[in-house]
Sequence to fold (261 residues):
Amino acid sequence: MTALAFWRLGIGSGSGYVELKEVAFLDASMVDVSVGGVASASSEYSATYSAAKAFDKSTSTSWSTVSGGIPAWIQYQHTTPVDIAAVKITANGIYGPGGFTLRGSANGTDWSAQVSLALAAGGPVSSSVESILVPAAAFSGLVDAVASRLRLGYGSPKPEFHTDGIPRARFLHDLENGGRGVILGTVKLDTDPVDLPLRRRVRLHREVDGMPVRETWSDAATGAYLFTHIHQGMRYTVIAYDHEHNYRAVVADNVTPEVLP
Fold:
């Protein structure tokens, strides 16, 4: 995406009201960059449940909308512009939100186009565990990855749709390479003044023996790629190939997965 100071998580549905224990806007390295800034929301039940409570790095406090305050949003003004790749949330019990969207702004007034978010890992969102949300477009690459597993002999995918209309892919258990790890990143062309996102084939190899583990395509609009359900105890090499043969392959080695709850 683009580096911006303001980022807003939109919530389109919930059980009367929404309560979130924690919200974290993550960069491409899955680092929480929502630190030192200012939080605000569409509504706050009280000072005890203010928007700031969702960014205090404690699950003992929470932000809540007023009753009937859905659709809703919660946002964070970062101290410097940041490029957001994912959002991590921890909901509170049965008061689970849905219909997630992401928008950014340079000034808090003029907002970018709305991007739908999908559950990448963790959850379900209605429970009190961490959930990782990524742009729904990344799931086009995720489905490609599942299809490639069929060619590699890891099993066939069974697509399904959840109530928010976003396609999911159901993974069969991968006894050798499966796990709770996630690796994500972007493929972009180094241009001035802004790098250009590219849709390119991306492969994931185990470093211990070079075995190909996953394959996907980066998203054409964002350059984002995503590998999920991989063994968290391994180191990997990510290789991006230019099928147009204008550039040589780009390699990132010694990559370790983010371990999800």
